Amino acid sequence: MAEIHHLTYGAVNPVVSYVIAFVGSLLGLVCTARARAARHRRRRSRWLVLAAITIGGAAVWLMHFTAMFGFDVPESPVRYGPGLTVASLVVAVVTVGAGLFVVGRGEANGGRIVLGGLLTGAGIVAMHYTGMAAVRVAGRIEYDPALVGASTLVAVTGATAALWLVVAVRGWRAVIGGAFVLGLAVCGMHYTGMAAMRIRLWTPGETRVEGLSPSLLIVPITVLAAVTLIGVAFSALQAMTEEEFADDRWPASRAAGRSAPMEAADPHGRPWTVRAVRAIDGPQRGPM
């Protein structure tokens, strides 16, 4: 068995990896909570797509490869197959997204939370082992089945608990707590899965290791992360702006024949409030 290092740079990799997992989870769970509050299917779906990208793409995929920069096999070069590396990103976003769509739509109940947790946890696990299938070393990679099972349990349990906090408990404390739990689940699954790894080296000189060097992945992963997070942030701001100014967010105002209240200056020194007034069945009334 080959010697394997998982913390080549000490505590830097796991700490940075957890921060990425936490931030990605927090953004994704906020989007999930917004989706459940949305009143239209199109808006709900938009929030859930953003949640899938931030959790699957940032909290899971980006965390994984940030942690993998600390992975080293002293007796063999380490390379990555580009096809499976990209495929692992797609797997993460699609599978995690499936779980989020289950809990983000319809009535919140135990069955939906459990199914959503299973799918989201399965997405975390599938991403990890697809990403590990992209690893190339001068030997054969094997896994301890018991630790693989433990890593799966960590991912599913953590994902289910996080979704339960967001869907059943609600509120900012619940969302932050859910992000904390989901970040732990993603990192815990990763390092438990890495502990399951065994490498049997080939005879020296028997095979050549092909693929991308880890150093070549730093720039594209950083650029992809920046573009993804900035794009999600702009999309979220646009979605929130559209919802804030949509008339159907203010049913009471519509019933009274007025549009939504917006903040504006009051010449008498009171809080800024302007109400656009239109006649429906009677004469217009000025602002009170």
From TrEMBL:
Keywords: Membrane, Transmembrane, Transmembrane helix. One of its GO terms (cellular component) is membrane. It holds the Pfam family MHYT. The keyword Transport does not apply. The chain crosses the membrane at residues 15-35, 47-71, 83-103, 115-135, 147-167, 174-197, 217-237. Residues 9-200 form the MHYT domain. The keyword Transmembrane helix applies. InterPro entries: MHYT_dom. It comes from the Bacteria. This is MHYT domain-containing signal sensor. It comes from Phytohabitans flavus. The lineage of its organism: Bacteria, Bacillati, Actinomycetota, Actinomycetes, Micromonosporales.
